[in-house]
Amino acid sequence: MIFKKDKRIILAGGVFLLTLLTYLSSLNNPFICYDDYSFIIDNQLVNEFNLKELFTSFSSGHYHPVTLLSYAMNHAFFGLNPVSFHTTSLLLHLLNVLLVFWLVFKISGKPSIATITALLVAVHPMNVESVSWAAARSSVLYP
Fold first, then answer.
1. pLDDT digits (tens, 9 = 90+) for 89-143
2. CA 116 to chain centre
3. Buried b (16+ CB within 10 A) or exposed e, 78-106
4. N or C: which end of the chain has fewer CB within 10 A?
5. What is the separation of C-alpha 113 from the centre of its chain, rounded to a whole number of angstroms?
């Protein structure tokens, strides 16, 4: 019984490590000209950190208060440092991957299925943009 729990921890740790290694280079990405400027850099809601405004205003035609709150918190703690924005997105993705591992294991009872499923979520090409592009934070906050 103890060995089975240790095996799950090792497998989940391996998935975590592989995911981290896959996206580690994205931490050095700069902000890019697409939506990073309108959603983050030039966004008064992010720069001023007014909770009432964050939850009652639209930004660039979108209503994403939790996303804006996460941007505002990044800005409040680390300024407009792109590394902090990418690090937060990577940490959220890592959390999602571990949650997938846990959920699939709870449903299937098989560590191998949980590992394969979590790996697919972790490194699937469709998730690269969500993790590597600061303005795509909403995709890792509520996938």
1. 999 999 999 999 999 999 999 999 999 999 999 999 888 999 999 999 999 998 7
2. 20
3. eeeebebbbebbbebbbebbbebbeebbe
4. N
5. 23
